[in-house]
Specification:
The complex is a heterodimer of chains A (about 270) and B (about 325). Chain A has seven helices and ten strands. Chain A is α/β, with parallel strands linked by helices and about 270 residues long. Chain A has one domain: Rossmann fold, CATH 3.40.50.300. The longest helix of chain A has 16 residues. Chain B is built from twelve helices and five strands. The termini of chain B are far apart. Classes of the chains: A alpha/beta (about 270), B alpha+beta (about 325). Chains A and B meet through α2 of A and α1, α7, α8 and α11 of B.
Amino acid sequence: MPVNDGPVVAQIHDGSVAIGGRPILRGIDLSVRRGEVVALLGANGSGKSTLVRSLMGLVPLSRGEVALFGTPLSQFRAWRRIGFVPQRVSATSGVPASVWEVVASGRLSRRPFLRPLRKADKAAVRNAIVAVGLTERAHDGCSTLSGGQQQRALIARALAGEPELFVLDEPTAGVDLQSQQAFADALAGLVAQGATIILVAHELGPMAALVDRTLVMRDGRIAYDGPPVASIEELEHGWADHGHHHPELQARYSDHAPTVASPIDAPPREQRP
Amino acid sequence: MSVLNYDFVVLALVAALFTGLAAPAVGTYLVQRRLALMGDGIGHIAVTGIALGLLTGTSPTLTAVIVATLGAILIEVIREQGRTNGDVALALLFYGGIAGGVLLIGLGGQSASTLNSYLFGSILSLSAVDVWTTVVLAVVVVVVAVGFSPQLFAVAQDQEFAKVAGLNVRFYNILVAVMAAVTVTIAMRTVGLLLVSALMVVPVATSQQLTRGFRSTLVTAMGLGTLASLGGVLVSAYVDVAPGATTVLIALAGFALAWPLGVMVRRRQRMQAPFAITPDGAYEGEHTVVPEEHAHEHGEDCGHLAVPHGDHVDYVHDGHRHAPHGSHYDEH
């Protein structure tokens, strides 16, 4: 793994999250430095989405602290440095909205109040739409797009803000392979410009080539933090070929069902040899 | 026109003009968040406000604005805090509002017809002060709804994204709720509390049959709302029925006209959308040559649907796609 000693752009220290009194994340320590492309893998319910949502301030921490670009979250105001692609199924709402309009809402954090779009704003929106390959659909309603195209529109919305840190929550869930490739290409362009990327995914697919650090979440904790692995399965079955094994990972009781354990870890139910 | 000689008709038309602009402007954001019935919920709450005003002898408009605003904020808070879905929050206040109103009216010994003029609108009951209050409040609502449209659009479209973009989501949510409450109270004299929600929602439903973007939907809905509301008051002045009924029926007639038109336009667009080109440039499926004696010559006026496909045009022909190729047609 290449040593990265750039400034820390996103950090969570001793982070715990409880939702409705039930611990979802426990004892998370994570620092992401500038230029890193971090993939966050894990089974359903392992807490990977909650982790990025707590980084974005969407879920309050019950313990610990988050800092973005070196500023504690509670004092952080420079939201234009962040581009967020939330996990969701569609880009539509109750009223039609064109791709252009949805993408243009990504410029809000950079626009002065009550002022129309300036030339630079329009150029950024146009470039973002070009980057995800939706130029010809720019003035069509979002509801006429396919699922993969809608997801690309949401990515363009984050691109339009020209952020330094991208946070994407399952951007390619339910997206066909062709769109995944188009999306991976758009991300590659960002990486080349020095952007930092935190990516939550179930399967990396065509994005695997970009990733230079992988985190695996299990049961609300970070179970693995290191060089890329292709999939969780590979890691859990000890196929990761990076020179050494992780016996502590293989020995750990692994449960794919979305459970949340008690705050005090119970001993594994099945002792493995 | 003879009815325009009556001052009260002119006053009602002025009120209708501004109400017709403001109601769909707020309604667009409500429909966007899939809270189309919020106007109804607030209207029911305002009944309590009216009853309170009549009971205490203060201005019913003033008490209605206050009670409706508090109710609208309460709906937002229940929605945000209670993990209750918006529908349930609405229902709770819906019933509470109307029950409270009926109770207070009963206690005050008011007749049902007094309440009726607020429930279904009455152009006879408008005073000049009412109309000027309506105009001022409606202008404020329209300026906020249009001026803050980028922010309000982003919040209604995707709350999480808006929050990470640094917007104060709660502030904008409450702003929309308060605007809805103000609109309900200014519209109650011309459309009535029970029907005001229709003026907020129906023009939006009509305009989105034919528009593709948010801004065009907003502007068209405001235009349609104004037409319905002016038309409703005029008809009501001639035939002496509650203006709420005529306004809403005109708005619904607009929807009945636009709906089949919208279905047709969308169907046409779908059929004329270009066929996809496969990534390697080859055309999908068998490259079947249609027999040379293909009786029909495809062209601009052949009556078959022409759909762009890459660098040429396919003609849709009884479920087949024929592409002209030299002297014959290929099956695509």
